Amino acid sequence: MKHGVHIVGYTNLASMVAADASALYARNLLDFLKLIITKEGTLNIDLADDIVAATLQCRDGQVTRPASA
């Protein structure tokens, strides 16, 4: 208590962020892989999917997106 105020919460919030960030990254990566890998385990690049198209950097040996700064 300080100045009559009780603060309730984690005393080390930074220790909670890393686990949450890692779990979020893992979930995002899994969801992305589900977009490009079929249930049979084959690669399926569907350019009609906005996320797949936006992340594709090269195809058939050619760069599909110019380098950005």
TrEMBL record:
Pfam families: AlaDh_PNT_C (PF01262). The keyword NADP applies. The keyword Zinc does not apply. Residues 2-65 form the Alanine dehydrogenase/pyridine nucleotide transhydrogenase NAD(H)-binding domain. GO terms for molecular function: NADP binding; proton-translocating NAD(P)+ transhydrogenase activity. It catalyses: NAD(+) + NADPH + H(+)(in) = NADH + NADP(+) + H(+)(out). One of its GO terms (biological process) is NADPH regeneration. Keywords: NAD, NADP, Translocase. Its EC number is 7.1.1.1. One of its GO terms (cellular component) is plasma membrane. InterPro entries: AlaDH/PNT_NAD(H)-bd. The transhydrogenation between NADH and NADP is coupled to respiration and ATP hydrolysis and functions as a proton pump across the membrane. This is proton-translocating NAD(P)(+) transhydrogenase. It comes from Caballeronia terrestris. The lineage of its organism: Bacteria, Pseudomonadati, Pseudomonadota, Betaproteobacteria, Burkholderiales.
